[in-house]
Amino acid sequence: MVSATPKGDDKFTIVVKLGSSSIVDENTREPRIANMSLLVQTLVKLRREGHRIVLVSSGATAVGLNIMGFEKKPKRLAVKQALAAVGQGKLISMWDGMFRLLNQKTAQVLLTRNDINDFAQFRNAENTLLELLDMDVIPIVNENDTISTQEFKFGDNDTLSAITAGMCNADFLFLLTDVDCLYTDNPRTNPDATPVFVVKHMDNLDVNTKSSGSAVGTGGMETKLIAADLATNAGVTTVICNSETPQNMLDIVRYSCVADAELRASEEQIVAQSKEEFDRANVDELENLQKNEIPLHTRFLGQPKNTVKNKEFWLLHGLKPNGSVIIDLGCYQAITRKKRAGLLPVGVIGVEGHFRHLECVDIKLGHKDNKTGKWDQSKPTYHVGRGRCNYQASEIELIMGMQSDELDSVLQYVDTEYVVHRENLAFPLHPDQELTELLTELKLEFPGH
Ligand SMILES: Nc1ncnc2c1ncn2[C@@H]1O[C@H](COP(=O)(O)OP(=O)(O)O)[C@@H](O)[C@H]1O
Ligand SMILES: N[C@@H](CCC(=O)OP(=O)(O)O)C(=O)O
């Protein structure tokens, strides 16, 4: 049984994401001023307790809809971008006006995925955020919708907030939305949906999040789970709770510090739970929440910190893959062993997509036909990790399967013998379900961090 005694001396970095449906009323399209001002008061309170706060605010398009008197979200990209341009200025001025009443300084940070495609630029964005936090400023982050093309979009602000949380090494990510927590099904349409209180590990999480969210929101619950997966892998405890009662964050942070330490105490690395373990943890958690009078929320436990290092986090989540390099089992073993090797052409059996030099690709394990020595495309491939390639797709197609000393005669130049250098390879904390099953069958391990 947890006794949630606040320690009081812990200072955290807390990223708070507010969805469009919490900023703009989905029926009247007017700003939800009460919601926003309650959030401002809470964030300032957390700041004054010494925590470092980042606000990721959606709502530019929704505010733009209201200003321009549009009935529905438009379909055409240029119109959406124009609306976001109209709305973002008003949005930031509403936030800044409210924070200024409490003498809290803010900064506007607009990011696109393209901005962080280069590691130096990723570090720049990271350094700017950290500098602002050191100055006690609250950065207000949104996607730079006006210049994001579809190809370079984060896609939704849930993902953006998780990347932001990873960037500033946050302790908590709060996804504030228009429902109290994650349910087993959409509570708007299924009255029998029941709350999920705590998730120790995202694998085997059995909930239905397929149905879309509010009329002004983008991703529904689905993108919040993707964000929770991404953030928890970067060591960030992620919470879904209701934006109408943001003051609950104060209690949840205090409770989580004590409760999560106890939940983690028995396990060094938090591993996937069975359905029974999951149900039991949920029942125990409800008891603890009631005993400590902690408001309803869903908490996803962050994995131990620093397990995915900064550059690996950038490779895995900052970059958008433009294709795949398919490798054989020997290559998989070489690049994932304790003393990791770089990825050599001899281990490559296939290429997918049209990527260029230094672009990001998915690394997949494929099946090599023993007779032909070629990639057997009738068998499944398994996602292993990501990497930045030293050669473009068409070059890799020419050199795959070759020994390093043969490259020159085919390419007429050789920059490096590696298709991907080992420091440009990254593996997630856990393999997905299919790869796990294959590795168990082959008695192989996934690389530790
Ligand atoms: N399993 C689920 N649990 C909770 N909400 C769900 C679930 N599946 C779908 N939803 C929907 O997701 C919505 C929240 O997503 P969205 O409208 O995009 O919010 P935001 O604008 O805050 O990002 C909820 O209003 C709810 O209708
Ligand atoms: N950048 C967009 C937000 C898109 C988005 O993810 O919205 P939501 O699902 O409400 O968090 C905007 O400001 O309109």
Automatic annotation (TrEMBL):
Keywords: Amino-acid biosynthesis, ATP-binding, Cytoplasm, Kinase, Nucleotide-binding, Proline biosynthesis, Transferase. Pfam families: AA_kinase, PUA. It comes from the Eukaryota. GO terms for biological process: alpha-amino acid biosynthetic process. GO terms for molecular function: ATP binding; glutamate 5-kinase activity; RNA binding. PROSITE patterns: GLUTAMATE_5_KINASE, PUA. Residues 323-420 form the PUA domain. GO terms for cellular component: cytosol. HAMAP family: ProB. This is Unnamed protein product. It comes from Ambrosiozyma monospora.
